[in-house]
TrEMBL record:
Annotated protein name in UniProt: IclR family transcriptional regulator
Domain HTH iclR-type: 5-66
Domain (IclR-ED) ranges: 60-256
PROSITE patterns given in the database record: HTH_ICLR, ICLR_ED
GO biological process: negative regulation of DNA-templated transcription
Keyword Phosphoprotein: no
Keyword terms of this UniProt record: DNA-binding, Transcription, Transcription regulation
Organism whose genome encodes this protein: Klugiella xanthotipulae
Gene3D superfamilies referenced in this protein's UniProt entry, alphabetically: 3.30.450.40, Winged helix-like DNA-binding domain superfamily/Winged helix DNA-binding domain
Amino acid sequence: MAQTLQSVSQALKILELLQQHPSLGVSDISELLAVSPSTAHRLLSTLLESNFVKQEQPGRKYQLGPLMSGSRTASAVEHCIEIATPHMLTLRDTTQETVHLATLTRAHTRFVAAYESPHIMRVTSRVGRQLPAHATAAGKILLSALSDAELAELYPEGDLAQPTTGSIGTAAELRRHVAHAREVGYARNMSEAEPGVGALAVPLRHPAGGVVCSLTVTGPDARLNPTGDVRLSAHERDLLRQLSATARSIEAELRY
């Protein structure tokens, strides 16, 4: 019985380690758990058979499997919210605009945290809401982290729903916007999700290099870009500078 409990405890520790690291090999697990390579291999083989972990190819490192991948995503987002909160409050106070944290759920932007602008005329919290990713700055910067194949799977050729007259209308147009976001490192929304609302978004990357969330400053177009110019206004450039600096500060504290 004691040996069985020890094996269960070690298996749970492996899953915890894989939540903190994108992939680990037998030697990594052996060293981190202070067990022999044969014990590490036995534990990983058991977890592999039950789909708790996976290997892309035999002999390669292990990752969380289908039964646990959602857990890792949830843990990473919760960790990101925890780390980002004080930085978001500071950004809200310095920009005087609403600040959001968002994730990507298939082809939708899901808002997971927000701090509202103190202005009477402001964008209110979107927490709990989902909006089409192609119509939001947060969604477009998150889509820019996908491969071309992943993007094509989400958006086959054809027309896209347009929440406003300013929304992206086709998959081809979306690809151009995503390519631009990859190039410049930010995405912009000008009345694309809701009339009169603009936003700027940057990615938040975890230590392994993937994107876990997007950080967004949102406000009325009348303040962000009163002339409606396709070029960034002076105010938008200042917001983007503060947004990017905040993202770097958050990323420096992310563990997974």
